[in-house]
Amino acid sequence: MSFSYCCMAHKWPAGDSTRFYDFKVQTMKVNKLCNTKEIVTINKMFPGPIVYAQEDDRIIVKVTNKTPYNATIHWHGVRQKLSCWFDGPSYITQCPIQAGASFTYEFTLVQQKGTFFWHAHVSWLRATVYGAIVVYPKTEVPYPFEHPYEEHIVILGEYWLRDVVQLEREVLASGGAAPPADAFTINSHPGPNYNCSQNDVYKIDVVPGKTYLLRLINAGLNMENFFAIAYHKLTIVEADAEYTKPFTTDRVMLGPGQTMNVLVTANQPIGKYSMAMGPYMSAQNISFQNISAIAYFQYLGAVPNSISLPAKLPSFNDNLAAKTVMDGLRSLNPVNVPKEIDTELFVTVGLNVNKCRSKTPRNNCRGMNNGTFAASMNNISFVMPTVSILEAYYKKIGGQFTVDFPGAPLRFYDFVNGAPNNAPNNTQAINGTRTKVLKFGSKVQLIFQDTSTVTTENHPIHLHGYSFYVVGYGTGNYNPHTANFNLIDPPYMNTIGVPVGGWAAIRFVADNPGVWFMHCHLEIHQSWGLGAVLIVENGEGELETLPHPPVDLPRC
């Protein structure tokens, strides 16, 4: 059995130990969709190497860049307690690792277990630079559900025939929308619906009657996705690396940056069943890839070349299907949600159209009504600085960022139904590298509100350095008098899909000092400026103070 994204032995690694990994950023040739091209990978593996660990282990990864591109690695969902220097987003916590250079990431998985993933966090390189992180419970600690017969990692991705670094440059220069991916992939395989991909299919061989744990990861760039297995129920037992009450459903929806563990029992007649990944596109008038990626869930004893039974996916704009999944997520046990809130933030998330400033509008102003697309939080489009914000903050280097990110929109209006929409008039964003400073230990409530400028859309918002309780969400404009909150067993997540034309409320205690990026995980929106930075100040003692920077921190 190959060590690819398949099965793990039942020997769990022992806890509190240190695990070393050697990551080389390298290009490799791949042949997909009738085309051969070079892609950037780690260790010439696509998907990249799996990081295996146990709760409370220390991880040390030396990353050496053997490509001409800038590189960084973000450990998505790892809370980086007192290790902000190793979080990985370029120009936020570090300068990129330049061609020929290396940087060693060191962090501890403090009280964390479950399915995470790592990905590049510079330009659009994470299209191919990604891999799973699997963190087991401590020795002798069982899962809170029946132990599965086998586990499999299932990474949803998007594949471009174009060079993605150049593609990002061109899209941003054009002022217009991003082209759809050339294929969806499951563990890098597009499956039989695509050209030249009849044999480019991921497959899980299953034993009738056995139960399997699938660790689902959405590593896609610009698309949210539905996932289903033909004629099989999925039972969600973990979301964003935190246990949930078991919730059984026909399909799940994952936005980029989200992970989910599901149990599947092979309880159907012997056969070959499709595992399907298709689009969830909640925005209006956006072109997207609508061909499903297919993998096989194949019973032992099935006729090998038989046609696989098709999976039923919701239609691409089925907002209710996405909501149903979210409605089912509850923390496994009652949780300690912050009740006395001392810092309240209200943040609009959405798109903008800026006026054309180019002398060649046909080339550079391909957004709505000859404007250029942008995206923002509280109508401020985030601009990356030239040195990392963390370094500028720590070393008191001036001129790189300001501390005036507003705690509420500059003006309130009917965000969902009455947003300005005669682009590019009144649809502009203000550019800035603005941060919001939080006192150590403050209890934060953050309301994300979707707006309808250009279009409403489900935005998967990711907060680095923290997980947060999703205490509420709904459609329309947030109204504190009518909003229903769950303060008993809300899910504890790191990436929340803010509902299309709606809002989401999260709570967390700011107890991890550092500089933490908060952004939409749709890469095009992040490139357009849909992000902001939270700076959490040091607390009192050594365990509340960010250590000094590592000696090999890359220079800009």
TrEMBL record:
Cofactor: Cu cation
Family under the similarity heading: Belongs to the multicopper oxidase family.
Organism, scientific name: Gossypium anomalum
Record-level GO BP terms: lignin catabolic process
Metal-binding in keyword set: yes
Statement: the UniProt record of this protein carries the keyword rRNA-binding: no
GO cellular-component term (any): apoplast
Cell compartments where the protein resides: Secreted, Extracellular space, Apoplast
Keyword terms: Apoplast, Copper, Glycoprotein, Lignin degradation, Metal-binding, Oxidoreductase, Repeat, Secreted
This protein's name: Laccase
Function: Lignin degradation and detoxification of lignin-derived products.
Cofactor note as given: Binds 4 Cu cations per monomer.
Transmembrane domains' residue ranges: none
CDD domains cross-referenced by the UniProt entry: CuRO_1_LCC_plant, CuRO_2_LCC_plant, CuRO_3_LCC_plant
Residue intervals of the Plastocyanin-like domain: 25-139, 151-301, 422-539
Reactions catalysed: 4 hydroquinone + O2 = 4 benzosemiquinone + 2 H2O
EC number: 1.10.3.2
Main subcellular localisation: secreted
Annotated GO MF terms: copper ion binding; hydroquinone:oxygen oxidoreductase activity
